[in-house]
Every structure is written in C-alpha cells, then in structure tokens.
Design a protein that fits this description.
Length: about 120
C-alpha cells in the first residue's frame, strides 16, 4: 500500500469531529489573509460537533467571509452537501448577506463524480 492510499484509508476511518478539526487546521495554514476564524460547528474543549451553519468560517480582511462545510456522510452524499450550501446562502440562518460571502469550501472524505460536482457548482 502506498503512503497516499494509507492516508486516504485513515481519513475514511476517523470520526466527523476529528475530520473537521483536521480540515480546519489545513485551511488555517492555507489562508493567512483573515482577521477572524471560528469553528461554529464544534464544541470547545470537546470532541463533538454541533448543529450550525456554517461549520467554520473565516472573516477576511476585506470584510467578506469564507464559509466551510464538512461532511463524512457518504450515505447522504451530494444531497447533504447541497443542503449545506443552501443553508450557507440563507442569510436568515447565517446572519450574513450573500454579497459578503467570498467562497464556500466543502471538505469531504468521499468522492464525487462530475455530475455531482456540477450540481454543487
């Protein structure tokens, strides 16, 4: 087994909270142009997720937001992701008008085909 395959298999085996923490850690390293970061979908000091939209967000220095949604739910797959995106775009749920959303990042540990990706686009 290659190292990549080992990593991919390990990602499928971790729980949703650890996956969310890992993804957020990687995104923080990738995005250094933010003035605030919040993990709204996690309970502080506990390894548990919470219901909320978005799961995490960055407030950029220009006043816009990057919303982050995480999913390990292969059973609900693209339908859950579509619902997550729609919730991110609902300013009643987020308190943020769509004009202030620069990007929505989706972190998942399963594959999407091209038609599923296009649907989410």
């Amino acid at each position: 087994m290659t190292r990549l395959q080992s990593i991919e298999n390990s990602l499928k085996e971790i729980n949703e909270t650890v996956f969310q923490e890992l993804c957020d850690s990687l995104l923080i390293r990738r995005n250094n142009n933010y003035s605030a970061f919040s993990r709204t979908g996690s309970q502080s000091g506990k390894q548990k997720t919470t219901v909320g939209t978005p799961d995490s967000f960055f407030l950029l220095s220009n006043g816009k937001y990057i919303f982050v949604e995480h999913s390990t739910n292969i059973t609900k797959g693209v339908n859950k992701l579509r619902d997550d995106i729609e919730k991110c775009l609902d300013d009643d749920k987020t308190g943020i008008h769509i004009n202030y959303i620069a990007e929505i990042i989706i972190c998942l540990n399963f594959n999407l085909n091209t038609s599923e990706t296009e649907l989410l686009q």
